[in-house]
């Protein structure tokens, strides 16, 4: 395959522009449904990463075969839902791709040619043999590349349609969910158009000599809109298939949803997908419990658990598979996490003031959305112990009265946990660590109750920090 440098550049720019606009349109349509997530949460959960080699949840799911499929996947992942019917529709489609072994007859090179074919700014070939002959043999030198791309694009479209015909023949044997039938109908209706059907019958299963001038009129003129809709559907299938294959490979599960007015969450064997050998943990809250207070020493697993939890909530509201064995969740209207909150030095804010502003933002978010899932890792780490204790106690007591939302809060201030121990709205969990043979041992297992381990001074002494400082006298 030879594509002139300038033509290739035009292709990349035009294809990127078209599909970016298409993905933005999809995203805007779904975001109007209003599950809300903010930039801080997107960063905390590492949902997207603009760096080429950076890990992200998007790259984790991105097993798409095509550029258009990649943009469709991104559009889906930027479109969380808060509607039971829509969530069932989307998860039902992914379940179909997971369990029915449905494969797509596509590859990246094929679809790249098809994309460019529909963006070649040249007059449609005239559908008769005389004009076709002159168009092929007497084309100007600077138009030869466009001519080649038109002819190759037509061939790739024909092979795609032949492959789809063979694929659809297997569909009646498979139970197709209602949410997918419209897409299969769109493909079938296209293949049943008299001229398309006649073309495929004439060419046979293995076409050799294709008279390009006879079919360009069908693809780029008479059925232009229908053909573009067909291609968009293929990209959507590519995106859903990528999600399904990721779920199978990493043993993810699809969530169940509850419409209970009081949020009650159950997740079994939760893990973070970035870890090679993750320790899985389960958590379950009762209807009257809207806060989980998490304690434990540094490096015991609190932050990883909170990231895993926030990620599971977000993926569940995409209708995507989650990193767990099972999950049942209420439908929230938003998600807010505060795990890696930076100082806002540009505005002259201290870390503590940034924390206060973050809590204010969360409060306004809840005021607007009513049902929000909230995570705070190490609440009020940016101030002195006395202020942190009083502020944490006041905030947690206020959170406990907001019954429509769910809060997972971690803290090192054990006195707060002990003060709130009798509050029935609060569930207490901790991650344990212990000293054995003068070595730290972490289980990374979630336990019931409150941790009383204080290992900070041990770590300081183990690293000989005090000895080094004393030697500097």
Detailed description of the structure:
The chain has 2 domains: 5-32 and 63-250, MutS, DNA mismatch repair protein, Chain A, domain 3, CATH 1.10.1420; 253-470, Rossmann fold (3-Layer(aba) Sandwich), CATH 3.40.50. Helix content is 50%, strand content 14%. The protein contains 18 helices and 13 strands. The strands form 3 sheets. The chain has a 7-stranded mixed β-sheet with strand order 1-9-10-11-6-12-13, sandwiched between helices. The chain has a 4-stranded mixed β-sheet with strand order 3-8-4-5, covered by helices on one side. Strands 2-7 form a two-stranded antiparallel sheet. Strand 12 and strand 13 form a beta hairpin. The protein is elongated. It starts with a helix and ends with a helix. Keywords: ATP-binding, DNA-binding, Membrane, Nucleotide-binding, Transmembrane, Transmembrane helix.
What percentage of amino acids are in beta strands?
A: 5-15%
Main sheet: strands, sense, barrel = 7 strands, mixed
Q: For the terminal residues, how far apart are their CA atoms? A: 72 Å
Indicate the CATH class of the largest domain.
Alpha Beta
Tally of contiguous helical segments: 18
Form type: elongated
Low-confidence stretches: 1-33, 137-141
Computed Rg? 28 Å
In terms of structural class, how would the helical and strand content be classed?
Answer: alpha/beta
Helix fraction by DSSP (H/I, runs of at least 4): 40-55%
């Amino acid at each position: 395959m030879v594509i002139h440098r300038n033509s290739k550049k035009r292709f990349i720019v035009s294809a990127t522009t078209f599909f970016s606009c298409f993905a933005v349109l999809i995203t805007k349509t779904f975001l109007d449904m209003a599950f809300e997530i903010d930039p801080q949460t997107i960063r905390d959960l590492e949902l997207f990463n603009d760096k080429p080699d950076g890990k992200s949840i998007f790259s984790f799911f991105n097993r798409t075969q095509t550029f258009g499929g990649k943009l469709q996947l991104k559009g889906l992942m930027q479109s969380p839902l808060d509607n039971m019917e829509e969530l069932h529709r989307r998860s039902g489609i992914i379940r179909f791709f997971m369990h029915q072994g449905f494969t797509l007859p596509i590859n990246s090179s094929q679809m790249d040619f098809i994309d460019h074919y529909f963006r070649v700014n040249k007059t449609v070939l005239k559908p008769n043999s005389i004009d076709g002959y002159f168009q092929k043999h007497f084309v100007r030198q600077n138009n030869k590349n466009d001519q080649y791309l038109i002819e190759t694009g037509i061939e790739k479209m024909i092979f795609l349609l032949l492959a789809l015909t063979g694929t659809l023949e297997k569909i009646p044997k498979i139970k197709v969910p209602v949410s997918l039938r419209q897409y299969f109908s769109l493909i079938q209706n296209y293949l049943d158009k008299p001229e398309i059907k006649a073309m495929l019958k004439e060419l046979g299963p293995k076409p050799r000599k294709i008279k390009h001038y006879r079919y360009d009129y069908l693809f780029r003129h008479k059925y232009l809109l229908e053909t573009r809709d067909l291609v968009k559907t293929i990209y959507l299938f590519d995106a859903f298939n990528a999600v399904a294959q990721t779920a199978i490979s990493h043993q993810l599960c699809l969530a169940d949803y509850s419409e209970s007015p009081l949020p009650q969450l159950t997740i079994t064997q939760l893990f973070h997908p970035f870890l090679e050998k993750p320790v899985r943990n389960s958590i379950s809250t009762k209807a009257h419990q809207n806060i989980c207070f998490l304690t434990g020493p540094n490096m015991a697993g609190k932050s990883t658990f909170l990231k895993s939890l926030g990620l599971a909530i977000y993926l569940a509201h995409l209708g995507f598979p989650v990193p767990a064995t099972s999950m049942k969740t209420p439908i929230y209207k938003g998600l807010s996490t505060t795990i890696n909150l930076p100082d806002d030095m540009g505005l002259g804010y201290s870390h503590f003031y940034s924390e206060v502003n973050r809590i204010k933002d969360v409060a306004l978010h809840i005021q607007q959305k009513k049902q929000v899932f909230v995570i705070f890792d190490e609440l009020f780490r940016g101030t002195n112990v006395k202020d942190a204790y009083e502020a944490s106690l006041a905030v947690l007591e206020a959170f406990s009265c907001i019954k429509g939302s769910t809060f997972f809060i971690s803290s090192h201030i054990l006195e707060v946990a002990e003060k709130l121990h009798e509050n029935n709205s609060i569930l207490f969990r901790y991650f344990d660590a212990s000293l054995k043979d003068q070595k730290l041992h972490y289980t990374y297992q979630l336990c019931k109750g409150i941790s009383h381990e204080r290992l900070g001074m041990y770590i300081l002494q183990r690293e000989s920090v005090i000895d080094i400082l004393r030697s500097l006298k």
